[in-house]
Amino acid sequence: FVPISGWHGYNMLEPSTKMPWFKGWLVERKEGKGEGKCLIEALDAILPPARPTDKALRLPLQDVYKIGGIGTVPVGRVETGILKPGTIVFFVPANITTEVKTVEMHHDPLQQAVPAHSDGF
């Protein structure tokens, strides 16, 4: 819990004297301890999730585009695994299987897509 006032900017970027009752926050985890008083410190203390490349491919679809002369282009973000051209993918719940022909990010071709990439294929 981090009390703030976005309207007045209290306790967002630096500790506020307007909240003397708030002594700060503390989080303990196996990676170490994090503590602070304001919102920016709490946001900086968030650890990014593990996105393993050695697990099965998991790619939630964000959208599917039909592009003339190209074909159907699914777009999504890789959460785990690696997506490469030639990979056979299986879409659930539609139960559709297809082969990845290309992988692109913002119209730039890629050899592979890794976790945290938003890609079209």
UniProtKB/TrEMBL annotation:
Keyword tags: Elongation factor, GTP-binding, Nucleotide-binding, Protein biosynthesis
InterPro entries: EFTu-like_2, P-loop_NTPase, TRAFAC_GTPase_members, Transl_B-barrel_sf
Domain Translation elongation factor EFTu-like: 71-115
Keyword Nucleotide-binding: yes
Signal peptide: none
Keyword Cytoplasm found: no
GO molecular function, one term: GTP binding
Record-given protein name: Elongation factor 1 alpha
Protein's organism: Galtara doriae
Lineage: Eukaryota, Metazoa, Ecdysozoa, Arthropoda, Hexapoda
